[in-house]
Each structure stands twice: as C-alpha cells, then as structure tokens.
Amino acid sequence: MTGKRTTGSQAGRHAYEGLDRAIHEKARLGIMTCLLTHKDDLTFGDIKELCALTDGNLSRHLKVLEDEKLVEVEKGYEGKKPKTLCRLSKEGRKRFLDYLEELGNVVKDASVEKVLREEGSKKSGNSSWAPA
After folding, report:
1. What is the spatial distance between Cα 55 and Cα 26, in angstroms, rounded to a whole number?
2. Per-residue pLDDT tens for 49-103?
3. In DSSP terms, which residues pair with 86 in a beta bridge?
C-alpha cells in the first residue's frame, strides 16, 4: 500500500487523547449531556426517560460516572417513595466540557479532510472514488 508518511508534526494528530473513555460510551454521553443541559438536578426517572435507558442500564452507567467522580448521586425518599437525584460534579462539568472541545476537534478535522479529499478528487478528474 502506498501513501504519504506523516511528518513529525503530524504524528499522533488523530489520536484524540482528550476523548475520555468514561464519557465516550453512548449511554454515558447521553447522561452527561442530559445533566449538563438541565439547570437543576434530574431524577433517575427523568434521565431514564430522556436517554431511553432501562433501570438496570442507567444504574450501571451512573455507577461508572460516579466512580469517576463525574456525577453526584443523592439517594433519599419523598414520603415513602425512593427518590434518586443526579447532578454533574464540578470535576465532571470541567471534564465533559474538555471532552466536548476535543470532540469538536474530531468534527473539524473530519470536515477539513473531507474538503481536501474532494478538492484532490476534482483536480485528478476522478470524482467517483473516495477512501473509506
């Protein structure tokens, strides 16, 4: 396979070290977004509905986020009914905003690469082929 070698300045360009594994999983990304975009604490039921998760799935993902100190979970009762409230921790908010910035870099890089690929394709006259 032939191709351009990366220069020293390009090495690791697409490593995206800022994509936090604790957040990057689809359900946890939804939970974190949910908590970031709501001013007040959310109940377990609110998050379950907004993220379309089952009780067990949500519990498991909240536990991961709590262990990572990204969210704070407060369990209590409202009358005799159990009530669980969730919120982003201060660290969780910072880490999530950093994660979103890095994700923006991914989108930007992908867009730039697509434009460059399309420009190269037009110049070579082969507009039907694009690498996967």
Report:
1. 16
2. 999 999 999 999 999 999 999 999 999 999 999 999 999 999 999 999 999 999 9
3. 42, 73
Helices (H) and strands (E) in the chain, counts: 5, 3
Per-residue confidence at 1, pLDDT binned at 50, 70, 90?
very low
pTM score, whole prediction: 0.77
Sign of CA dihedral 130, 3, 12, 67: positive
d(CA 58, CA 64) in angstroms, rounded, equals 10
Number of domains composing the chain: 1
3-state secondary structure of 13: coil
Q: Evaluate whether residue 10 is within a structural domain.
A: no
d(CA 25, CA 128): 34
Do 29 and 23 meet the contact criterion of CB atoms below 8 Å apart?
yes
Looking up residue 104, the CATH number of its domain turns out to be 1.10.10.10
Q: Which range of residues forms the domain containing residue 42?
A: 21-124
